[in-house]
């Protein structure tokens, strides 16, 4: 677990050290984290943040160390929520009370283009007078949460509270928050593609051509380019931006099946009228990686099929995109 630990903070748990250790261990296991445990000491890497809990049976010390402040604040939020749900209190040495939620950049819509019958492309850029901070969307995760404020003239953003938790605006102030994929970015802008479908608050919003309006980008997160001797990518329209991005990032052979109209298909992609049928025909070999993203029932069926084929969980991903 080697990390460049430029940022750090500590938290004290006065009572319930052993229970806290068990809870954090369980969360680490749920999230598939790398984890080591010896009596009185637990260490895990959560979202790139090194978490070390030590105790001698009484109070516990929780140390966080990470290459980015954002990661520290995300883990603070997560652990504080986890512990407080079991009435265990943690007092952090340093909380960024009042700051925007970790990983949230408030930007504004620069332009909206209709790029095909099925897709909108949106570019958002840093707000005038703010420091550009879109660089990070190139690394660590392909996706982000798009926060569309309830009232664009008086947006209310999630902020860190005194305990280290993030308070999300509720009721009439609650922003809409759907997940999208970075399709391109630079230091001060991010582009993403929205598949146009009925009944969608995001699509309703983009159809109004909201140039100049504020939005929040929370992230990046989710997976990055998978590794394997060859990649087998299957998905519907909502997965297309991620498939294109993985194609750009991959340095191994990539095989693609997409259930989207011909005009949206990437070069070398095969049109798939039935993603599960195409999935069934894939021979990923010893070192191939299978990546599948589509509607929830399809993703569930894909996962079942891949497990039945005997593929190890480390060699595939089957994600519900909607
Ligand atoms: C990791 C990840 C990355 C994603 N990247 C992208 C991306 O880059 N571009 C993109 O367009 N989408 C992407 N999606 C999918 C997107 O988040 C969903 O389509 C989401 O539902 C859109 O939110 P919404 O505003 O429509 O509101 P929601 O409240 O989520 O949905 C409103 C209604 O629309 C329905 N719906 C959602 N998607 C579809 C669809 N494709 N066809 C028909 N009905 C639908 C829902 O079932 C619901 O009834 C991604 C999802 C994930 C998990």
Describe what this molecule looks like in 3D.
- This protein is α+β, with helices and mostly antiparallel strands and 322 residues long.
- It folds into three domains: 7-92, 2-Layer Sandwich (TATA-Binding Protein); 104-221, Translation factors (Elongation Factor Tu (Ef-tu), domain 3, Beta Barrel), CATH 2.40.30.10; 231-320, Rossmann fold (3-Layer(aba) Sandwich), CATH 3.40.50.
- The chain is 20% helix and 35% strand.
- It is built from six helices and 19 strands.
- The protein has helices at 17-30, 69-84, 201-207, 240-249, 275-280, 296-308, and strands at 7-13, 35-38, 41-46, 49-55, 60-66, 91-92, 104-114, 119-126, 143-148, 159-160, 166-167, 176-186, 189-195, 214-221, 231-236, 254-259, 269-271, 289-294, 316-320.
- A six-stranded antiparallel β-sheet has the order 2-3-4-5-1-6. Strands 7-8-13-12-9-14 form a six-stranded antiparallel beta barrel.
- It is globular, with a radius of gyration of 21 Å.
Feature tags:
alpha+beta, TATA-Binding Protein, six-stranded antiparallel barrel, globular, 3 domains, Rossmann fold, 322 residues, binds flavin-adenine dinucleotide, 19 strands
**What is the CATH homologous superfamily assignment of the largest domain?**
Translation factors
Can you summarize the main beta sheet? 6 strands, antiparallel
- Percent of residues in beta strands? 35-45%
CATH topology of the largest domain: Elongation Factor Tu (Ef-tu), domain 3
Task: Tell me the count of domains.
Answer: 3
Protein structure class: alpha+beta
**What's the SSE pattern?**
EHEEEEHEEEEEEEEHEEHEEHEHE
Computed CA radius of gyration, to the nearest angstrom: 21 Å
Please estimate the helix content: 10-25%
- What strand order characterises the main sheet? 2-3-4-5-1-6
Report the average pLDDT across residues.
95
Poorly predicted regions are none
Principal-axis shape equals globular
| Straight-line distance between termini | 34 Å
Q: How many DSSP-defined strands?
A: 19
